[in-house]
Amino acid sequence: MGLSTHVLDTMHGAPAAGMRVALYSTLTEPPSLLKQLVLNQDGRPGDGPLLDNASLRIGTYRLVFDVAAYFRSCAVALPEPNFLDHVSLDFGVADVSQHYHVPLLVSPWSYSTYRGS
Question: Are 87 and 53 in contact (CB under 8 A)?
Fold first, then answer.
């Protein structure tokens, strides 16, 4: 199943449709951009997993979520500077035969993540 993500907007109790996300490999310096996308109405990539089983490699990765731009697009009044701008999640893949799901639960003031299934 490879690598997947989804984002839930906990302020509005809805998927974060329209949020921009970037995926990097952090095995090199500077990190290498692998993919950029905009989340669909379900808060997920529209074209399936971020990386399928054949593309997923053992190593380290970074997901960068454009949180401030998303909440601005939802007409949320954010302070300047805003508390969260981009949320970066660095994580490792140790076994490419397993599914790595990296969800984000986010508001303008907090976020959490976990390794999902």
Answer: no
In order of start, what are the domains of the chain with their CATH numbers?
3-111 (2.60.40.180)
Residue 117 pLDDT class (50, 70, 90 cuts): confident
Cα–Cα distances in Å, from 58 out to 41, 86, 94, 98, 113?
Answer: 30, 25, 5, 11, 20
User: Does pTM top 0.85 for this prediction?
Assistant: yes
Structure tokens at 11: 């302020």
For residue 109, the SS3 value is: coil
C-alpha–C-alpha distance, residues 47 and 58, integer Å: 22
